[in-house]
Write a structure and sequence with these properties.
The chain is α+β, with helices and mostly antiparallel strands and 875 residues long. It has 23 helices and 37 strands. Helix content is 39%, strand content 26%. Strands 1, 2, 5, 6, 7, 8, 9, 10 and 11 form a 9-stranded mixed β-sheet that branches. Helix 6 crosses helix 7, helix 11 runs antiparallel to helix 12 and helix 16 packs across helix 17.
Length: 875
């Protein structure tokens, strides 16, 4: 039975039992800021398990793509070396959100594995949590398993929790027995880590809510969360003991072997072939879901996986980029169930090829440096942290790649030494990683939506409406009213205000009634379909239950809508000029400007930027009407609409078409393209490896931008007393004149400095047998003080110098001692003694030191103190 057939049968079995088939969510978690990557089937249902969200179904089935290659869940080091470790895998799962429980979940699982998959019952055994008598009885009495086939486990392996508090419950696992010819013992035994008994399905019974004191309170609506590894099941059904020998991996392994001209079953090549097959899956799916190689966060994990694959390719003799050529093999293998692979194939190929070329350019040199560094090392030795850091910093070797290379030689890494070199970069990486980007939503909004339902949005067709106040929030708490001058948030049953979403900022405006005015500064949607108006009571008071008039600031809304439509035109132009690999990675649309982030491997040339801008403006001049239709996401994509993979879409979506653009979009837009007027690109820049950003303005803001430039040009021309057309020539003349004056000034300063040196040289006095020059210099440039000290030493020869310049409420100090006297007195000691007297500090070498302070009025006393200190030192 092929992997595809197993997946189809699993989904068909549960849809046949009234489960809704829910597509796999993105590998980038959309609703859990604690996760680096989606790593389990339940991730996309977390809000349902917590009771924070409700959908049209109460039971579901899915085949979820998962990645475990970073953070707490990291299988990277074991990939290719064991039979069942992967960075990318599929998790089959069925779920119940308060519908059925153990008495149905257990028989469902048993029926599927024994009847649908045909696994022999004598090869199966199950585990239950030690105290879960209910599950034990169902397995024994309802399913009919004998006691010796039901193992009670009293460890956390059979008890699952979402965290230290919250939903949790016991587990029941189904194991397959490969037989006595395979080493290992049953779960719970001392030999359980062997390969004989393999867990194929885990049933989680969420039936408790654990409080902070550890009390287990029964949940009113217990839930079911199950997970079965597709790769493991395929291995069993295909008569294999290693997942990599199944049809889910073999096409990738054989294609890699062919590219490397090696035998796909050759023991010497096996680990590398398996690593590349696994990593190709992770790399391709991550890029398809919008992750791009970078030096931090998810992008860095992607880069680590990719470079590890490239290193194993080199072990197979593949010294040129090869991984990108394997992407079509994966697309053919898995694109049927995961259409994002087909849609993003060109982008995946392009991004992998670029990253490969970048790394291959330094890989050979880095490997040579590593080989040279370990030439004298033997098993049990440690590679210096400095070398590990150099490989990371200069040649792009992730630390785990270096460790992986040396693992078979028994050489470990000096991680303490590496960390000491890496401290600054690691701190930056920690600061940069902030989770998935979704803000944690306060429970108050969940409660409001639960009690009052969704807020109907009327703003596509009107900017004014009446509404009933359903809730008021102040300082994060629901209240009954807001008084004059108080700030808070208002929720109404319906609203014309757009809540911030999809990169478009929220509307501003007013909520008013007789004697009452609430100024709306912003609108947000902290939970789906709940629009919250934030602002201040300008006049009167507002209470829950009152009827109010809602008025959107029409000028502000129009400016936002123009910029949003312009963003669609910009996206289309970029894909046309640069290629289909361009993918939107983020945007921000305001009344003043738009910002558009997109995937592209290099900066745009001036000609490309000009072509993009011209294409947009040509489209705007066509003055075509905007059209909006509502359909399902699948219908929209089939019609050619551009969708963002990883974005959460509802059962119905709005498809906005204007000119050549067609996108899934819930934002507000111009009625006609001509309303936008024109677009002007303000800047284009890099925001990460393979990621670019364009900032632009349109409509009245663009016209104001051009007018502002024209006014600056006129002002510049007037200052130079020339016409605007001659400004460039005028600036060139000014720069030439400036250069001449700077040369003259430098010469004049040199001449004056020479005069000052001669003047000061005559003020040397003898103190304790030492030639000393300690002076206050008013009006001199502090920047030239060190140079002055050096020139004085050259002029005088043997001397002790202490000079101070007061300026702008501060004082600059410099001390100098000629080489022949540093054995008797040191410049650094002079500054350390004198600087505190002027409210500062300093130090330096024996022959040159400097300092400063913020009490220039004490400079004369400091000079006297230096002389006295020298005199006392000579006694």
């Amino acid at each position: 039975m092929t992997g595809d057939e197993i997946r189809k049968r699993f989904i068909a079995f549960f849809t046949g039992h009234d489960h809704a088939h829910v597509a796999s969510s993105s590998l980038v978690p959309q609703n859990d800021p604690t996760l680096l990557f989606t790593n389990a089937g339940m991730n996309q249902f977390k809000a349902l398990f917590l009771g924070q969200e409700h959908r049209s179904y109460k039971t579901a089935v899915s085949s979820q793509k998962c990645v475990r290659a970073g953070g707490k869940h990291n299988d990277l080091e074991n990939v290719g070396r064991t039979a069942r470790h992967h960075t990318f895998f599929e998790m089959l799962g069925n779920f119940s959100f308060g519908d059925y429980f153990k008495e149905d979940a257990i028989p469902y699982a048993w029926q599927f594995v024994t009847q649908e998959l045909g696994l022999p019952e004598d090869r199966l055994l199950v585990t239950v949590f030690a105290s879960d008598d209910e599950a034990y009885d169902i397995w024994h009495d309802k399913v009919g398993l004998p006691p010796e086939k039901i193992l009670r486990i009293d460890t956390n392996d059979n008890f699952w929790s979402m965290g230290p508090t919250g939903p949790c419950g016991p587990c029941s696992e189904i194991f397959y027995d490969y037989g006595p010819e395979v080493a290992g013992g049953p779960p719970g035994s001392t030999e359980q880590e062997g390969d004989r008994f393999v867990e194929i399905w885990n049933l989680v019974f969420m039936q408790y809510d654990r409080s902070e004191d550890g009390t287990m309170n029964p949940l009113p609506n217990p839930c079911i969360d199950t997970g079965a590894g597709l790769e493991r099941i395929a291995s069993i059904l295909q008569g294999k003991t290693n997942n990599y020998d199944t049809d889910l991996f073999q096409p990738l392994i054989k294609a890699t072997a062919q590219a490397a001209n090696v035998d796909p079953v050759d023991t010497a090549s096996l680990v590398s072939l398996r690593v590349i097959a696994d990593h190709l899956r992770s790399v391709s799916f991550l890029i398809a879901d919008g992750v791009l190689p970078a030096n931090e966060g998810r992008g860095y994990v992607l880069r680590r996986i990719m470079r590890r694959a490239l290193r194993h390719g080199r072990l197979l003799g593949l010294k040129k980029p090869f991984l990108y050529q394997l992407v079509p093999v994966l697309v053919k293998l898995m694109g049927g169930f995961f259409p994002e692979l087909i849609a993003q194939e060109k982008t995946i190929v392009l991004m992998v090829e670029i990253e490969e070329k970048r790394f291959v350019a330094t890989l050979g040199t880095g490997l040579k440096i590593l080989e040279d560094a370990v030439t004298e090392l033997k098993s049990g030795d440690v590679l210096a942290g400095e070398t590990v850091f150099s490989l990371y910093d200069t040649y792009g070797f992730p630390v785990d790649l270096t460790a992986d290379i040396l693992k078979d030689r028994g050489i470990s890494l000096d991680m303490d030494g590496f960390e000491s070199h890496m401290a600054q970069q690691r701190e930056r990486a920690r600061a940069a990683w902030v989770g998935s980007g979704d803000e944690k939503v306060s429970a108050v909004y969940q409660e409001i939506r639960e009690e009052h339902g969704v807020v109907e949005f009327l703003g596509y067709n009107t900017l004014t409406a009446q509404g009933s106040v359903t809730a008021i929030i102040k300082d994060g708490v629901s209240v009954k009213s807001l008084l004059p001058g108080e700030s808070g948030q208002i929720v109404t049953n319906q609203t014309p205000f757009y809540g911030e979403a999809g990169g478009q900022v929220g509307d501003a405006g007013q909520i008013l009634a007789d004697g009452m005015l609430f100024t709306v500064k912003n609108c947000t949607k902290p939970v789906a379909d709940l629009t919250v108006h934030s602002g201040t009571m300008t006049m009167g008071a507002i209470t829950v239950g009152g009827v109010v008039n809602l008025q959107v600031d029409s000028v502000n809304r129009q400016a936002i809508s123009l910029h949003h439509s312009a963003t669609h035109y910009l996206h289309h132009a970029l894909r046309t000029v640069l290629g289909d690999h361009v993918k939107q990675a983020g945007s921000m649309v305001t009344a003043q400007r738009l910002r558009f982030d997109f995937s592209h491997y290099q900066g745009l040339t001036a000609d490309e930027l000009e072509e993009v801008e011209a294409m947009v403006n040509e489209g705007l001049q066509a003055n075509v009407p905007q059209e909006t239709v509502v359909m399902t996401p699948d219908e929209a994509v089939a019609a050619g609409a551009v969708a963002l993979f990883g974005e959460k879409y509802g059962e119905q979506v709005r498809v906005v078409r204007i000119g050549p653009t067609m996108e899934l979009c819930g934002g507000t837009h111009a009625q006609r393209s001509g309303d936008i007027g024109l677009l002007r690109v303000i800047s284009e820049s890099a925001i990460a490896a393979g990621m670019r950003r364009i900032e632009a303005v349109c409509g009245p803001v663009a016209r104001q931008s051009y007018q502002g430039d024209v006014e600056l040009l006129k002002q510049s021309a007037a200052l130079m007393k020339i016409g605007p057309a001659d400004v460039v020539k005028g600036v060139e003349r000014l720069l030439l004149r400036q250069k001449e004056l700077e040369q003259q000034l430098a010469q004049a300063k040199s001449d004056l400095s020479g005069n000052l040196v001669d003047e000061l040289a005559g003020d040397v006095e003898e103190i304790a047998g030492l030639p000393v020059l300690a002076k206050r210099l008013d009006g001199e440039d502090p920047k030239g003080l060190r140079e002055l000290v050096e020139r004085l030493k050259d002029k005088i020869g043997s001397v002790v110098l202490f000079l101070g310049i007061p300026q702008d409420g501060k004082v600059t100090l410099v001390a100098g001692v000629s080489k022949d006297l540093t054995g008797k007195i040191k410049a650094g000691d002079i500054i350390r003694m004198a600087a505190p007297l002027v409210g500062g500090k300093g130090g330096g070498r024996p022959d040159m030191a400097q300092g400063g302070g913020n009490r220039p009025e004490q400079l004369n006393e400091a000079i006297s103190a230096v002389k006295k200190w020298i005199e006392d030192s000579g006694e």
